[in-house]
Write a structure and sequence with these properties.
single chain; Alpha-Beta Plaits; 492 residues; Aminopeptidase; 9-stranded antiparallel β-sheet; alpha+beta; 27% strand; 29% helix
């Protein structure tokens, strides 16, 4: 089974799972670019005699009949999403639309050094494919639901036909801490801001300089938001405001972040200032770097500010003073991070937001926030606060993409069964958790009221950021747990 696998996967166990993850690493699958992978999986399923359907949203559903003597057993939906967050270091040439991922092994972990790995949610997909392939499993009817566009807006789950699934038990395999059962999650809403600009001409006496913020860890805006990691956009805006307090400043461009649901690791701006001020700007950036490292010590203490002179004539137009003042003030004032911790689920973030993307030029610009909350009304209120802030400056600010949270049900029969299976197989109790990150369970549950749902997965570190890694042993544990849960459900 492993003879044709790449060397990094050759000795990993269980081979039946890793062979599928190797395929996912080989086929690019950015959000809204899952078609090639979906077609490959559909062909694979057809060759194995599995019924398949692609719905109008692009989701792939596979159906496997019950194993021998389990025809009357309850069926279950196994669910994961096909797409992945595509993040790479600035110096990486990786093209997520074309290039295969290049994982390596290190100290019991599988990781990608310079890009995201796609273990979120590729391991979940691989586990489900393994369950569909393994004819030794005891199970009732299985529906495998592979959604698309989860990472950029949960478009697949939104478009799911409310009559497309037959089963009323669902195992979501999209969480990232082995030993925990998740039974609730936050909902979310995006805030998108745009504003047209009127360029000004760069003064002749000005010199241009590029400023970059790098060295931050980034991460998942739901999983890591409470850790106080740095936001490159917010830090860059602070640096630019510090510069303009001392010298005349014109901005030619400001860019940062690549995904609304990822903490921005890098941001950069091309600025212009009087030639005699450039050396002072460089000195000020060094001072600010010291301040930033002190503030972020212990979590993002390697943050760095870089300045690079631009060639003469490289820029000709800059933002007008009015537009520049509006953007810098609004971005500086915009909330970022945890708004409130939950009183109902101690230790869990209730409401937060992430300034994930900014893209400004002299002709105009835009930025995007992702708001999450366990309480829908609280998330909507924070989103409207951000809208109000940018509306004050005459910008167009709108909310979009709202998806509901998943309300926990601690008396769930599926939860009770899974806890019993876990205890019997691993000798310890799992923990029950509510997660601040968004899961598709909330949307699926709104389409299928009464569906009993649970989520679990292997241990993944650094999701949504380069260096993402998955604990190999926890994948083996997940496979064992999934097999045993399916067998136990088949007995009921």
């Amino acid at each position: 089974m492993t003879s044709n696998l790449p060397g990094v996967f050759r000795d990993l166990r269980p081979a039946i799972v890793w062979q599928h993850f190797a395929t996912l690493c080989a086929i690019p699958r950015p959000s809204r670019g899952e078609a090639r992978l979906r077609e490959h999986l559909q062909s694979w399923a057809t060759a194995r005699g599995l019924a398949t359907i692609v719905d109008t949203a692009g989701n792939l559903i596979m159906r496997k009949s019950a194993s021998a003597e389990c025809a009357s057993a309850p069926g279950v939906v196994l669910q994961a999403h096909l797409d992945m967050v595509c993040q790479a270091n600035a110096d990486s040439p990786h093209d997520f639309a074309r290039d295969p991922l290049q994982p390596i092994l290190r100290d019991g972990w599988l990781l990608a050094e310079h890009t995201t790995l796609g273990a979120d949610n590729g391991i979940g997909v691989a586990l489900i494919l393994a369950a569909l392939e393994d004819d030794r499993l005891a199970h009732g009817p299985i529906e495998a639901l592979f959604t698309v566009d989860e990472e950029s807006g949960m478009g697949g789950a939104r478009g799911l036909d409310p009559n497309g699934l037959d089963r009323r038990l669902l195992l979501n395999l999209d969480t990232e801490e082995w030993g925990r059962f998740y039974l609730g999650c936050a909902g979310g809403v995006d805030v998108n801001v745009r504003r047209a600009g009127r360029p000004d001409v760069l003064p002749d006496s000005y010199a241009a300089l590029r400023i970059d913020v790098r060295g931050l860890r980034g991460g998942h805006s739901g999983v890591n938001i409470h850790e106080g990691r740095g936001n490159a956009i917010k830090l860059l805006v602070r640096a630019l405001r510090a510069i303009e307090r001392r010298w005349p400043l014109s901005i030619a461009s400001l860019h940062g972040g690549t995904a609304r649901n990822a903490l921005p690791r890098e941001a950069g701006a091309v600025i212009a200032a009087p030639r005699e001020a450039i050396s002072g700007v460089t000195d000020l950036l060094a001072e600010l770097q010291t301040d930033f490292r002190e503030e972020l010590a212990g979590i993002d203490g390697e943050v760095a500010l870089y300045s690079t002179p631009c060639a003469s004539g490289e820029i000709a137009r800059v933002m007008s003073s009015v537009e520049q003042a509006s953007w810098l003030a609004s971005l500086h004032a915009a909330p970022q991070g945890v708004r409130r911790m939950s009183l109902r689920a101690p230790g869990v973030v209730e409401t937060s937001d992430n300034l994930g993307i900014v893209d400004l030029t002299p002709e105009g610009g835009e930025c995007s926030f992702m708001v999450r909350s366990l309480v829908d009304s609280a998330g909507e209120e924070l989103a409207e606060e951000i809208v109000s802030l940018f509306t004050l400056s005459g910008s167009v600010a709108e909310t979009s993409g709202h998806y509901p949270g998943w309300a926990p049900n601690p008396t769930s029969p599926l939860l009770a069964l899974c806890r019993e299976v876990y205890r019997a197989n691993f000798g310890v109790e799992p923990t029950n958790e509510v997660i601040h990150a968004g899961l598709e369970c909330g949307i699926i549950g709104s389409k299928y009221p009464g569906m009993d749902m649970l989520s679990f997965g292997p241990t993944i570190r650094g999701a949504h950021a380069p260096g993402e890694m998955v604990d190999i042993r926890s994948v083996e544990c997940c496979w064992r747990l999934l097999r045993e849960i399916l067998a136990e459900i088949a007995k009921t």
